[in-house]
Design a protein that fits this description.
heterodimer, A: about 375 residues, mainly alpha, Amino acid/polyamine transporter I, 15 helices, about 75% helix, B: about 450 residues, alpha+beta, five-stranded antiparallel sheet, elongated
């Protein structure tokens, strides 16, 4: 059902704030951020369309199954592990960033490492669930959080303190040539479809994606918002001073009627929920990819019992995350993230193109596959009867 | 036959074993007089046998009420279910003469509605089936009989619409019923425990006494389990959203009932999170609220000498014992308990400086919103959920509450009720072919 596709797109595009995307963009605001965003929008949309073709060619098949059609298992393992690491790092960076945010804004007395350990435990529980459960949680979480976030964004747009002059000033620099880093950062906003590397397993053979034109429009709007609103509130120069630019921006807003006055609390709580969901999905993806490297039986999308391998793999992820937070401080994290986001963009482009090429070859293969399945089915049915 | 039955049973006065003789025949009759309607025994057996207007042998053969029972191993059970055993010419027949003491046409007590059927299911299976069949007059209605309990051998009926029922669900239920092996079943609640996972936090089966709920569930393709001696039926599988849906929602004004459903969800969120939020906001994040509100909360707490979570535990202990007491007490004293308790909770505790007045409001909101949930077993389950949430609130404040709520969400989404997703928004679709997750099945 197409709505699950859009849930992923919406989640990832909203989550860009946690991966320092607005910060990176604002650093390049005079040096080609806008052009990079435009390029990213085009490239991201093109990649998404290519990947939709892949989804149509191989319904009900995740990345491991698609790769397995074309190459022997040992060759697929490195590809899968690289992809798994990409998802793992995305989630871990988000969680680390949020544990620091909690330390800054909610509990200044609690060590961020302790909070991170607790978050890891929660996400360990969530990520080990079945794929079907993960996607249900995504749905519920988004339905609860997104209306409130949209309301806050609406408030931001309507605020009299929003300085449209600053926004106009920055938009005058639209004609500077694009750069790699802001391009990679803004490409992240468009990558929600990538979660269907694994979630494609859930799709039924007659899956049809409707309203696919909505993806680029929504993502571009989110990208523009997360870039321009902070500039509008903090000015062309001031916006570059903050690392957690959106938390500070939301703190400039006030809800004058209600129990809660400062918008930042609502904003952070909603984003905490979204980040947990994002981390859950990321770890789940990584876990499923690593699990498909193991010499094991067929994959189940909704097993009655959680296999022990789930716990082992996700436990390893949690340990890696905590170790990362232990060894690297915030500044190093920022530096690593800005390099990682470029690497991630490369992996995204290469992997999607690769899978797309496979899908072009795949139509013939698929026919063979279908006919093979039919014959085996026919062969099996007399036995059953 | 009589000797055999005599040895089978323990010394019991109500076991009646008779050998009768008329001009041509000798019959043996065995029954447990306390379980049977003796007038039925005399109408069907004793009178025709002695009057001899028709040959008694033909009568037994023609009347379908007499059924052959050839297996001597079943004699004991048959007698215990209120049958009369009759031996004639070396053949044994059984006759149903059971007399069951039950409440006559009871009114609904647990799940009341304003407009809607007021009669509830009966404690006797036959009456219950009567009620269900008369409301669901369809030839598709299937009724399967089984017994559960190795000692109690309680009769149990599976009722479903043959056309609409999900075959996999039905298969799962049958397999589970085969597997359960507890000795005794007297209430549906015990059956619910043996059928489901007893450690789960949310009920996966609905227990109800309302015939209209039962019939609409059958229409939805669900399976109903009725147990002899209990006026509650089990509906399975059920989803979380079924539990928050009162039957009135289909009878009353459309917009108001939608508003009430929304209100129920808010109430559930409040009753689960409010104690934890109180702890978190008092002890960690008082700056969350606007300044005036924070000041008034802090002011009301100024007389309280201990941390907020102690206060929460005191008040929750009080309110839970109050609810428990009003359930357990005889009806005549019950109102006294609530009055006294309400007075203590409302005024004295706050004036004595034991708890803040805000905490009293929190407690009553928690209790009242809990009573909004229409189905009793869900209401009890939700009552528990606020306690685990207080623990992360004590250690991590408001972010801890969010972690806890997230865990609950994942837990709910992970539950399956007989293979059906338990917590899935917009999951009701007629065509399943294009749904997610149909590939691996």
């Amino acid at each position: 059902m197409s709505r699950y596709f859009f849930y992923n797109v919406i989640l990832v595009s909203l989550l860009n704030l946690m991966l320092f995307v607005p910060y990176l963009l604002i650093q390049y605001r005079y040096k080609g951020a806008i052009m990079s965003m435009l390029c990213a929008a085009i490239v991201g949309t093109a990649l998404a369309l290519l990947f939709m073709h892949v989804m149509k060619t191989f319904p009900g098949k995740g990345l491991p199954e698609i790769l397995r059609l074309f190459m022997p298992k040992p060759l697929t393992i490195p590809i899968l592990i690289v992809c798994a690491v990409m998802w793992l790092t995305a989630s871990s960076i988000t969680m680390y960033a949020f544990s620091v945010l909690i330390n800054r804004f909610f509990n200044p007395d609690t060590s961020s490492l302790v909070v991170l350990v607790f978050m890891c435990l929660v996400c360990m529980y969530a990520a080990t669930r079945s794929t079907l459960t993960v996607i249900f949680v995504l749905e519920v979480g988004l339905i609860v959080c997104v209306p409130i976030i949209v309301f806050l964004l609406f408030k931001a747009f309507n605020s009299p303190m929003l300085d449209w002059d600053a926004i106009r000033t920055v938009s005058h620099y639209w004609n500077r040539g694009p750069q790699v880093k802001p391009f990679a950062a803004s490409l992240f906003v468009f990558t929600g479809y990538m979660n269907f590397f694994m979630f494609n397993r859930l799709n039924s053979p007659n899956f049809r994606l409707r309203f696919r034109w909505g993806t680029p429009i929504f993502c571009s709007l989110i990208l523009l918002t997360s870039f321009f609103i902070p500039i509008g509130f903090h000015g062309t120069e001031g916006a570059a001073d903050y690392l957690y630019i959106w938390s500070v921006t939301s703190d400039t807003l006030i809800m004058s009627y209600g129990f809660i006055e400062r918008v930042i609390f609502v904003f952070l709580l909603m984003y905490l929920m979204l980040s947990l969901i994002f981390a859950m999905i990321g770890w789940h993806m990584g876990m499923e990819m690593i699990k498909s490297c193991l010499p094991e039986k067929k994959e189940a999308i909704d097993p009655a019992r959680t296999p022990r391998s789930n716990w082992v793999i996700v436990g390893l992820f949690a340990v890696l995350t905590v170790a990362y937070a232990y060894w690297f401080n915030e500044k190093e994290n920022l530096k690593i993230t800005s390099h990682w986001i470029v690497l991630r963009a490369c992996v995204e482009i290469v992997s999607v193109l690769f899978v797309f090429v496979l899908s072009l070859f795949g139509s013939g293969k698929r026919k063979k596959l279908v006919s093979h399945e039919n014959t085996s089915h026919n062969a099996a049915s007399p036995d059953g009867a | 036959m009589l000797n055999r039955i005599g040895t089978l049973f323990a010394e019991s006065r109500d076991l009646t074993l008779d050998r009768l003789q008329n001009d041509s025949l000798i019959i043996e009759v065995a029954y447990i007089s306390t379980l049977c309607d003796e007038s039925k025994v005399s109408d069907f057996i004793l009178v025709p046998f002695t009057k001899q207007e028709h040959p008694f042998e033909d009568l037994v053969k023609r009347n379908p009420s007499f059924k052959r029972l050839d297996d001597p191993a079943k004699w004991g059970d048959t007698l215990l279910h209120g049958f009369v055993l009759l031996q004639l010419n070396g053949m044994v027949y059984k006759l149903d003469a059971a007399r069951i003491i039950r409440n006559e046409n009871p009114q609904t007590m647990v799940e009341t509605v304003i407009m809607g059927p007021q009669i509830s299911l009966s404690e006797d299976l036959i009456d219950s089936i009567n009620i269900v069949r008369s409301r669901y007059p369809s030839e598709e209605l299937a009724v399967e009989e089984r017994t559960v309990g190795t000692i109690s051998k309680t009769r149990m009926l599976l009722v479903y619409d043959k056309h609409r029922v999900d075959a996999t669900v039905l298969g799962l239920i049958r397999a589970k019923l085969e597997r359960i092996s507890d000795p005794f079943y007297t209430a549906t609640g015990e059956l619910v425990r043996s059928l489901g996972d007893r450690y789960r936090l949310f009920p996966s089966m609905m227990v109800t006494e309302r015939p209209d709920r039962v019939c609409s569930a059958i229409e939805d393709g669900k399976v109903i389990v009725l147990l002899q001696g209990s006026m509650f039926a089990i509906i399975l599988p059920s989803t979380f959203f079924d539990f928050l849906h009162a039957v009135d929602d289909d009878y009353d004004s459309f917009w108001m009932t939608r508003a009430m459903i929304t209100l129920r969800y808010f109430a559930v969120v409040l009753t689960i999170t409010l104690p934890a939020l109180y702890v978190a906001i008092m002890s960690y994040n008082p700056e969350l609220f606007r300044v005036q509100l924070t000041f008034s909360i802090a002011g009301s707490r100024s007389a309280v000498p201990y941390p907020s979570f102690v206060e929460v535990f005191i008040m929750l202990f009080m309110i839970e014992s109050l609810i428990e007491a009003s359930v357990r007490l005889p009806k005549y004293i019950g109102s006294t308990a609530t009055t006294v308790g309400g007075l203590i909770l409302g005024q004295a505790a706050q004036q004595a400086g034991l708890v803040s007045s805000i905490m009293i409001i929190v407690t009553s909101v928690v209790a009242i919103s809990n009573f909004v949930i229409p189905v009793n077993n869900m209401s009890t389950a939700i009552r528990f959920l606020k306690y685990p949430l207080i623990v992360p609130a004590i250690f991590f404040g408001i972010s801890g509450v969010t972690f806890g709520v997230f865990c609950y969400l994942v837990y709910l989404a992970d539950l399956r009720s007989f293979g059906k997703p338990y917590f899935r928004i917009f999951g009701r679709r007629q065509s399943q072919s294009s749904d997610v997750g149909q590939v691996g099945r």
